[in-house]
Amino acid sequence: MSPFPPHVRLVIFDADNTLRRVTVPGRVCPWGPDEWEPLPGIREALAGVAWGEGGLRLAMASNQDQVFYGHLTAGMARRLLMDAAEAATGHRPEEGAVRFCAHAMDAGCACRKPAPGLLEQAMAHHGIGPDQTLFVGDAEVDREAAAHAGVAFLHVDELLGQASLGSGSSSHQKT
Ligand SMILES: [Mg+2]
After folding, report:
1. How many Å lie between the centroid of ligand 1 and the Cα of residue 171?
2. 92: in domain
3. What is the Cα–Cα distance from 151 to 148, expressed in whole angstroms?
4. How far is the CA of 174 from the centre of ligand 1 (A)?
5. pTM of structure
């Protein structure tokens, strides 16, 4: 069963500490393929969701200033974001739906969260408006970006909590 409200057609995810977590101590985001793992519980929380044609549309919105600072290329950042989305949802997102900000933290750009640019780009890619979109994240900048874009926000802890409640309450359906 989907954990999302029935009117939602597009779910945009933050990456770090929402779909994935870094396995290298002290690092804010992975710089390479061996430096992350799916956030514990996220696969289970999203297991009942159908993505793609006939289901929900999938997108990502991530601040990736580590690209600006030279720790990874934009191409690697995109690949790692797509890998994380696929690991968490079982569905590889369209490349154009994976939006990230590669500017400096203090660039004052229109895309870095809490600005709404990444969310607006993701909605434009899918042709779906803010009233049918949900943004899932873990940080205050995510909540603020959603508000600036006019999009509903769901904290990942709530998503994980719903999943654990759901697995308990639906136990009678087994057998
Ligand atoms: Mg995050």
Report:
1. 32
2. yes
3. 8
4. 35
5. 0.93
